[in-house]
Write a structure and sequence with these properties.
about 15% strand, 12 helices, binds pyridoxal-5'-phosphate, globular, alpha/beta, 3-stranded antiparallel β-sheet, 7-stranded mixed β-sheet, Aspartate Aminotransferase, domain 2
Length: about 375
């Protein structure tokens, strides 16, 4: 049996007719940049995800960069984020000229350790970027308590957490800004690059709109230097089709994760501990093993694809050597990076594939 890591083709087969019709419609209309498809997607995303204002943009990385700019973060400022994230989070901080300050994660939820986050706050700290990694939740009421105490702004990197909830409110709506990615493999994926920035603050929304579009007020009038981070009309239209299915796909993720949990937890394997009061939307299904290479190779030989998200923590990335960190600085992030394995996981996975994966996994994996 073949068990693909992610089955985008099965998804496409289900929605093929709608997608093809939409693509033709966009091309006929020639609304290629922003325009009615992007506006309609922003509005629909607000409704489905549960947020107030949205600004579509070019990808999840530019979403964070633009968010930092609109909050006035720049040279001389420090921004705190987790040592175990996807590289884009720290890239955006560096892009605006601020200093990257890393903090260890919790070993159970894999999200940023809030005690250590508070300890890392200094005079130059301007902004916190908690990452809702794997679709699990940071404890946002405590993040906001700390942010308010030190007067810091907050950007929630929600690239892996579409529709995730904490205390019944949508992620991305606790902080000043939430950012999303629609990279094809994300819970909601475009057929190319796309991203989105959400906020409750109408003034910020106005600024964000200009930040993604050359600091424009009118067509050839520019208030400030910004750049081009606009959303593509074709991607927006495709996302609009897929958005209708997102709740159903998300529920399927949660159901599949429960099945994996039931099979692996009582065998002593460490899996994601869902944050209390949170609804984790499982961007990935993570399990820890001590013999990862052996597990990956054995599963691969039986037709099962796995991945590692992510193998190298930020402080040990060659590109970030200038931060001056060393092995041992963030032990939880290091330990998880050495042990985590992402099992095949997507809403189109069938029970037979899951059972087969569990069976083969348990034959070889050591906790
Ligand atoms: C995917 C991702 C990003 C970047 O999104 P892109 O659309 O690929 O630029 C940022 N942060 C996290 C946590 C991600 O998973």
């Amino acid at each position: 049996m073949q068990v693909p890591f992610l089955n985008l083709d099965a998804q496409y087969q289900q929605i093929k007719d709608e997608i093809q019709a939409t693509i033709s419609e966009v091309i006929e209309s020639k609304n290629f940049i922003q325009g009615p498809y992007a506006e309609s997607f922003e509005k629909n995303f607000n409704e489905v995800h549960g947020c107030k204002f949205s600004v579509g943009c070019s990808n999840g990385t530019s979403a964070i960069t633009v968010a930092l700019r609109s909050l006035g973060v720049g040279p001389g400022d420090e921004v705190i984020t987790a040592a175990n994230t996807f590289f884009a989070t720290v890239e955006a901080i560096h892009e605006v000229g601020a200093k990257i300050v890393l903090v260890d994660c919790r070993p159970d939820t894999y999200c940023i350790d809030l005690v250590k986050m508070e300890e890392a706050i200094g005079k130059k700290t301007k902004c916190l970027i908690p990452v809702h990694l794997y679709g699990n939740l940071c404890e946002m009421d405590r993040v906001m308590e700390v942010a308010n105490k030190y007067n810091l702004s907050v950007i929630e990197d929600s690239a892996q957490a579409h529709l995730a909830k904490y205390k019944n409110a949508a992620v991305g709506t606790f902080g000043n800004i939430g950012t999303f990615s629609f990279y094809p493999g994300k819970n909601l994926g475009a057929y190319g690059d796309a991203g989105l920035i959400v906020t409750r603050d109408e003034k910020l929304q106005q600024n964000l709109k200009m930040q993604v579009n050359h600091g424009r007020t009118k067509k050839y009038e520019h208030d400030f230097l910004a750049g081009n981070f606009r959303m593509d009309g074709l991607q927006a239209a495709i996302l609009n089709v897929k958005l209708k299915y997102l709740s159903e796909w998300t529920q399927k993720r949660i159901d599949l994760a429960k099945k994996y949990d039931a099979a692996l937890k009582n065998k002593g394997f460490k899996v994601i501990e869902v944050q209390k009061d949170g609804v984790c939307v499982y961007h990935l299904y993570i399990v820890e093993v001590s013999n990862r290479e052996e597990v990956m190779n054995t599963l691969k030989a039986t037709g099962i694809s796995t991945g590692i998200h992510y193998p190298v923590p930020m402080h040990l990335q060659p590109a970030l050597a200038f931060l001056g960190h060393k092995l041992g600085d963030f032990p939880n992030a290091e330990n998880s990076c050495d042990r985590i394995l992402s099992l095949p996981f997507c809403p189109y996975m069938v029970d037979m594939q899951l059972d087969y994966t569990v069976e083969k996994f348990l034959e070889v994996a050591k906790g």
